[in-house]
Every structure is written in structure tokens, then in C-alpha cells.
Amino acid sequence: MAPPSLISYIREELRAGYSWQQIRDYLLRYHYPAQAVDGAYQELSRPAAQVKPVNREKAAVAIAIVFVLLLGSGFTVYLIATPGAGPIVLGIKASLSRTSFEPGDAVKVLYSLDNPEKGVLIDTEVKFELFSLRDELIGSGSEKVALKDKFSGEKTLPLSGDALPGSYYVKVSALHPDGKSTSTANFNIESVQEQIRNIAEEQCPATCDDQNKCTRDTCGRETGFSCRHEVIDPCCGDGICSSAENYETCLSDCDAPSNAPPDAEEDAFGEKSIFEKIDIIGDIAKRDYEKAARMCRDIEILTYQNTCFTKAAVQSGKLEGCDPVVDERSKDDCFFDFAIGRLDAKICEKVVKETRRDQCYMEFVTKGDYTVCGKLANRYLKQSCDSLSQLSTFDPGNINASQFNVTALGFETEEEFREYIKNMDFGSSVES
Questions:
Q1: Which residues are bridge partners to 44 per DSSP?
Q2: Could you tell me the pTM of the whole model?
Q3: Beta-sheet strands, E only, within 213-276
Q4: Order of strands across the sheet that contains 150-158
Q5: Distance (Å, rounded) from C-alpha 88 to C-alpha 82?
Q6: Residues 343-365: pLDDT tens digits?
Q7: What residues does 145 pair with on adjacent strands?
Q8: How far is residue 135 CA from its own chain's centroid?
Q9: CATH of region 77-193, choose from 3.40.50.300, 3.40.50.720, 2.60.40.3880, 1.10.10.10
């Protein structure tokens, strides 16, 4: 048996003056099975006693849902109210200036009309209606157009300040003596909190850099606004000397052969800056720390030499790599970089200067590690760390809403306030 909602829809369209062939063509165009469509028509053709009564309220809701699903993408529907030879079918297209609104906003509807009988004046009434998915009318308006050729216009319809969040659609109808044409477009009504949350969800992090030169870091709509790291292969700097690399093209990964000239590797640096050279030595340290350390010793300027030792220590994971660094400040920097680079907060305690040591610990606090709070020397930083630690264990589900004036905060009920608190993001990550 055909679905009652489909039978009801066909019955209503026949009563409105559309021919069976027009209705059938329309339903088949939007992928309704021919068997179901023809079966529904046969049900209507039976004697009245054989046709089961249809729950009109359920049918109306079902038809509304079918129409919204079919018309939601904004396609134009051409329906002719008066059957007969040679009716004029106006083209109509509706769209919206945007698809998301707040209660109290104004919905700007953009529309265009096309008269196929160029030059023939057609007095047209354009009707605008805003509906919920249950076909509840929430706003309307109309205007007159004397249509000869093509016409584009816009109409603004206000939304009530108490309009409920949800999905809606606008229906634009062109009424004229020969019939009617309609077009629809969907939109959403969102609360302020929903809009803020949606905007936050459609933003990439401040950076997607994973500190790995052998990955391609991307983020955007195509990645769902989350970071994507694609491995680059082959990659100079991954510690693997591939068949496509040699010491001249990638000294980071490849050693010079035994028969190469004594200065072959030094010559491979070419015209690179001292900072590029240190980066390459750091990559070499991943696979051969002793070789990297020897290269660092060959750097004559002490400041760059210390930077090189630090880079080699971090990249190799060998803390003793900081031992060759002579002056205290540079050695503190080496321990600091090692702790952060190897994610080991215990190394911070090796930093001699108190303020620099606190700074090292705070790097871990901002990443949500509150186990270091007791090691902070600065009492203000320690208080901040303790506060963040308490906030990280805050349970919004156990909040006592009676302690707050929820009405003054903009909520109608305590339950609404609790739900809002529950959905807030109390993540432990804090920007420094």
C-alpha cells in the first residue's frame, strides 16, 4: 500500500487544480519510485469506502518534512494552478543574504522573476512566507510586480525576538492570473551561544606546526578545521639516507663516502648561513651524536658553538650534550630547551637562575601539567598555577545553581543555567 502521506499530498494537489500528469512528473523528477506514485494514485481512484482515512495532522507534518527536504537546496518549483492549453509559467528563484540568524534579526530574501512571454505585461503578486519545519507560519509579506521581462528584488521580513532556535525555510510565491510559481530556501535560527560555538568550531588552531620538517601541516574546511600532518617522503632531515639522497644533496641524512676528500662534508655546507648549518648539525645528531658534537666544536664563535651544542643535545636526547656549554646563562638555556624539547619537566630543576627556572616550569603549566606548581619560586606564579589546577578539576555538573541569580544572568530557569555551564569549555590549556 502506498504511504498515506503520499496519497494525501496527491489528493491535495489534485484539489488545487494540478493535473495527474503534472503531479506524477514532478514526483518522478525528484526520485519518488514510479510504483509508489502510481500506487498512491490508484488508491485515490478506488471508491471512497475502500480508501483508508488519513490522519490529517500526521499527513501535514509528513508533507512539510518532504517539502523541506526536497526544496531545502533552493531549487525552483514551477507549478501551474490552472490546467489548460498554453499557460504562462513564470520562472522564480529565491535565496537569502545569509543562512543563519538570531531571534529578532531581519531575514533578507533575494528573489528573481523571469517572464517567458517577453514583452507581455503580467501583473504579479509576490508572496513571502517564513515557516518552521512543521509548516508553522512565523512571518509573511507581499508586494506587487508588473512583470514584462526579468525582475530582481529583495524583501526584508523581521523575526520575532522570541523565535526558537531551529531549522526554518522561506517560501516565495509568484501569483498571477495564469497560475503560481514557487521557490524556497532554508535558514537556521541560532542563539548567541550557538553562533559563538559554531564560529569556534570553524576555526583552525593558531598553529598546526608539529615541529617536524618531514610533515606537511595543513588545516582548513577540507580538514574539518583540525590539523592534518602528511608525511613527506623522501625528506631531508628524517635521519634516513634514501636512494634519492647523498651527502651533497642532504648532509643531514647521508655521510660522505670513505673515498671522499677530507673536507667534502664541510664543503657540502656551501654558502649556507650559520643558522642553517646548526640546523643540519642538529639533524645529524639524531643519528650520530658524536659526529654532530665534533662539528659543533669546529664552530669558532662561542655563542654559535653553544647554540649548536644545545641543538645537538635536544635532537639526540642526550642531556650530557649540555656539558660542553661553558657559561651559566647558555647552559641554563640548554637545560631549558632540552626540558621543553624532550617534554621532561624534571630537567627544569637543573636551571640555575630562579626566574628562568620558573619560566621553564610555566611552559608545562600552560600545557596542563600542574604537578610542577609546588616547584615554582615566585608566589604569584604559584598561586596562578594552583588556581588553574583547581579549575581543571571543576565539575560543572555539581554546581549549585541556587547560589546564582540565574534571571539576572539571562537564563529563564536553573535547568537552563546548569545546561549552559555543562556545555562550557573548562579545558586545562591556558595561553601564556
A1: none
A2: 0.45
A3: 215-218, 228-231
A4: 91-96, 106-114, 150-158
A5: 10
A6: 999 999 999 999 999 999 999 99
A7: 124
A8: 30
A9: 2.60.40.3880
